[in-house]
Amino acid sequence: MNKSINLNPVVRTEMLIRKPANLVFEAFIEPDITTKFWFTKSSGRLSEGRKVLWEWEMYGVSDEIYVKELETNKRILIASSNGTTVEWSFTSRNNNETMVNITNAGFTGNGDEVLNHAIDAMGGYTMVLCGLKAYLEHGIQLNLVADKAPDFHV
After folding, report:
1. Rounded CA separation 127/84 (Å)
2. pLDDT (average), residues 139-148
3. Contact 72, 20 (CB under 8 A)
4. Residue 104's closest CA among 74, 65, 141?
5. Which of helix, strand or coil describes residue 99?
6. What pLDDT digit, counting tens, does each position of 29-79 carry?
7. Most CB contacts within 10 A, which of 45, 67, 110, 128?
8. Residues 6+ away with beta carbon under 8 Å from 133
9. Higher pLDDT, 59 or 4
10. Predicted structure pTM score
11. pLDDT at residue 111 in the model
């Protein structure tokens, strides 16, 4: 018997960053900071209602995102050109700690494609948070995204 399974995975990852929420939030909306731990180029700062192009020049790929909602120091919600949505939430735990939660949903394709995209997103956003932590807490650029797959650089 062949059963059909409806897959609608939601990827969640989180990390405690030992910096105030305003600094952590700024790291995601200001490309001069974000390029230190994630993408290599951006068409601009995130603001609600704005479309922004993010580029990973080493891989020859980009993503046009639309900022659906932005609540200063608390939340960012974007729609990606691949059809997924990503939400960042920032929760202050005290004056110098912020819990960052990332939720990614809306993966499309057949069962294997959906699962592969979700697994890839989970690993990718975990790397982004690790890179953010190293950069904001210790001033270290780990180059995690570029070093993840150096054989695929263009």
Report:
1. 19
2. 96
3. no
4. 65
5. strand
6. 999 999 999 999 999 999 999 999 999 999 999 999 999 999 999 999 999
7. 128
8. 15, 17, 18
9. 59
10. 0.93
11. 86
Tell me if 154 sits within 8 A of 58, measured CB to CB.
yes
Among 10, 18, 43, CA closest to 132: 18
The CA distance from 109 to 115, in Å, is: 9
C-alpha distance from residue 10 to each of 70, 84, 113, 121 (Å): 20, 10, 14, 10
- The Cα-based distances of 128 to 48, 52, 94, 146 in angstroms read 22, 18, 23, 11
Residue 16 pairs with which residues in a beta bridge? Answer: 99
Phi/psi at 54 (5° precision) = -105, 140
7: its two tokens: 């897959």
Find how far residue 5's CA is from the centre of its chain.
Answer: 28
For residues 98 and 91, the answer to whether their CB atoms sit within 8 Å is yes
The residue that leads in pLDDT, 113 or 3, is: 113
Both tokens of 6, joined, read 């409806």
Cα distance between residue 8 and residue 71, in whole Å: 26
What's the full length of the chain, in residues? 154
What's the CA gap between 96 and 120, in Å, rounded?
31
